[in-house]
Write a structure and sequence with these properties.
Elements: H1 2-16, H2 47-57, E1 61-66, H3 77-89, E2 93-99, H4 100-105, H5 108-114, E3 119-124, E4 137-140, E5 144-147
Parallel strand pairs: 1-2, 2-3
Antiparallel strand pairs: 1-4, 4-5
Length: about 150
């Protein structure tokens, strides 16, 4: 459990310190919205586009924390998971942390990723505090971070 807590703290710190020394941090606002709507802001990139770009650019390490991972055939997450698998195949170390309660409901995608070389998956259990791991963020090579409210589904 201490290793998991350390992973959480490390992920947050890396996200806060992602800008290289001497460089200003850059922030980009992205959006996600239900596919059944015509919502969207011109000039604002969609979440999936940014996720794909970031995972495809990964060179050494990807650290992901998500509430759960639920992939359905033909859904928007499929190319994202494919890009994570491709990164692992390139030798990128991938670590994924998800909530233990929701892992019981959605184990398949996490288990599939966990079988791949260079991929480590873990669950974290906050039931002692009546909570869940609901954070949604990832870091790429210790240089870029994505923090948002989008689930991996």
């Amino acid at each position: 459990m201490n290793a998991l807590k350390s992973f959480l703290v490390l992920g947050l710190l890396v996200g806060l310190l992602a800008a290289a020394p001497g460089q200003a941090a850059q922030i980009e606002v992205v959006e996600s919205f239900p596919l059944e709507t015509d919502l969207g802001v011109p000039g604002v990139r969609q979440t999936q586009e940014v996720w794909l770009e970031m995972f495809r650019a990964a060179q050494t390490q990807v650290d992901i924390e998500q509430f759960y991972v639920s992939d359905q055939a033909g859904e928007a997450l499929a190319p994202v998971l494919a890009s994570i698998k491709d990164a692992a195949a390139r030798g990128v170390r991938v670590r994924l942390l998800v909530d233990s309660k929701f892992f019981k409901t959605y184990p398949d995608s996490v288990n599939e990723l966990g079988k791949l070389p260079n991929v480590q998956t873990r669950t974290i259990d906050f039931s002692e505090t009546n909570g869940v791991q609901h954070a949604k963020f990832f870091t790429i090579d210790g240089q870029q971070s994505f923090v948002g409210s989008q689930n991996f589904d």
